[in-house]
Design a protein that fits this description.
Helices cover 7% and strands 34% of the residues. It has 100 residues and is mainly beta. It has one domain: Chitinase A, domain 3. Pfam families: FKBP_C. It catalyses: [protein]-peptidylproline (omega=180) = [protein]-peptidylproline (omega=0). Residues 12-99 form the PPIase FKBP-type domain.
C-alpha cells in the first residue's frame, strides 16, 4: 500500500504507472513497460481504456494493484495487436507519479 499521505490518483490528474498486461485466458503477456519509463496519461478524460480509468482511480503513489478488466471495459469485440476480440485482461500496475 502507498504512503497514507501520498498523492492520490483522481480524475483530471496526470498519473504515471508501471504495468504488465496479460490475457486472463492463458496469462500471456501482451504489453509491459517494466524497465522503461512510466506510462503517463491524464485520468478521467478517455486517454486509456475504461478498466484503467476505474481501476487506477484512488490509488496512491507506491500502491500496487491487480486490475481484471472485462471486454466491456477493455477493447470489446475489437482485435488490438495480439489481444483477441472479447478478451478479459489482467494488469498488474504500480502508481509511480501523480501530477496536477
Amino acid at each position: 500500500m502507498g504512503k497514507p499521505d501520498g498523492k492520490r490518483a483522481a480524475p483530471g490528474k496526470k498519473v504515471g504507472v508501471k504495468y504488465i498486461g496479460k490475457l486472463q485466458k492463458d496469462g500471456k503477456i501482451f504489453d509491459s513497460n517494466v524497465g522503461r519509463a512510466p506510462f503517463k496519461f491524464r485520468l478521467g478524460v478517455g486517454q486509456v481504456i475504461k478498466g484503467w480509468e476505474v481501476g487506477i482511480n484512488g490509488m496512491r503513489i507506491g500502491d500496487k494493484r491487480r486490475i481484471t478488466i472485462p471486454p466491456s471495459m477493455g477493447y470489446a469485440d475489437k482485435r488490438v495487436g495480439t489481444i483477441p476480440p472479447n478478451a478479459w485482461l489482467v494488469f498488474d500496475v504500480e502508481l509511480v507519479d501523480v501530477d496536477r
